[in-house]
Amino acid sequence: MKNISIIAFAATVLMCGCKGQPDSPIPEKDLIFAKGQKIENDNFQGTVFLNNLVMADSVNNTAVGSVTFEPGARTKWHVHPAGQIILALAGKGYYQEQGKAKLILKKGDVIKCPPSIPHWHGASTDTGFVQVAITNRENGPTVWLEAVTEREYKSYNNQ
Amino acid sequence: MKNISIIAFAATVLMCGCKGQPDSPIPEKDLIFAKGQKIENDNFQGTVFLNNLVMADSVNNTAVGSVTFEPGARTKWHVHPAGQIILALAGKGYYQEQGKAKLILKKGDVIKCPPSIPHWHGASTDTGFVQVAITNRENGPTVWLEAVTEREYKSYNNQ
Question: Do the interacting molecules here have an ipTM over 0.90?
C-alpha cells in the first residue's frame, strides 16, 4: 500500500509539473462582466463566450462585447472594415496582425486594430483571456477568413 | 486615565459610525488600467484621473479613456454630440440624465448615453468609481454645461 501511495504522489507531481501549471480558465469572481453565451458559430476555434454589452444602432454605430476565451481558444483570421479596439481585462492573450509577430496581451493592454488588416486574437495556450472588443460597424460587418493554424498559434511562445 | 480611554473609544466609534464606512478610493491593485493624470480643467468637480487609452483619429473616430473618480467627485453636466458608452469597472458610481432619476452604477454595469442628452456621472459620496468611457467624436467634442449641485448629486441616495 505504501508503494502505491508513493507512485500516486509521484504521478501527481509529474502531471502538475510537466506543463508548469494546469490550464487556467478565468475564475468567475475575477470577471467584470458576465461571460454570456457560448459562441456556436465556426468563426472561432475552441471554447469562447460572448456577452454583447452594447449593440450598434443607427445613432451610435459602435458595438461593445466582452469575450472570454478558454485556454487554447482563438478567433479565425478576420478583418474589421472600420477597425476595432481591444481592451485586455484578465488572463493572458495573443494578438497577431498579418506579417507581424504575435503579441502577448495581459490585463490593462490596449490594441487598436487598423481597418481592413487581417488579424486574429485569443487566449494563450495555458491561461484563459478576457477582452472587451469595441467595434465600429459603420463600414459593414466583420469579414471572416481562414483558421489560425497550430503553427501560427504557437509561434513565438517564448515571449 | 480610564475615563479618557472611554471617551476616546466612544469618539472613535461615533466618527466611524456616522458615515457607515470611511471614504474609499479604489485600491491601485484593483485597477485594470493605470489611473493616468489628474484632471486639472474645471469640467469636473473633485479629484478625477484620466488615462487616455485610445485617441480618436480620422480612420476610427472613437476615443477610449479610463476615468477614476475619488469619492464625491463627478463631471459637470455635459452633452456628447454622437453619444457615449460607459463601462463600470470598479467601485460605486452615479449616472443621471436630465429629467430622470439618478442611477447607481457598480462593476459590470453598462450605460449607453444618447447623443445630445445632458447628463453627468461620477463617484458615490463614500466610494470611488472607475469607468471606461467610449466616445464617438464624429459629430464634434463634448459640450460642457453647468456644475452638478450638491442637491442634485445627493438626490435619491437611499437607492
Answer: no
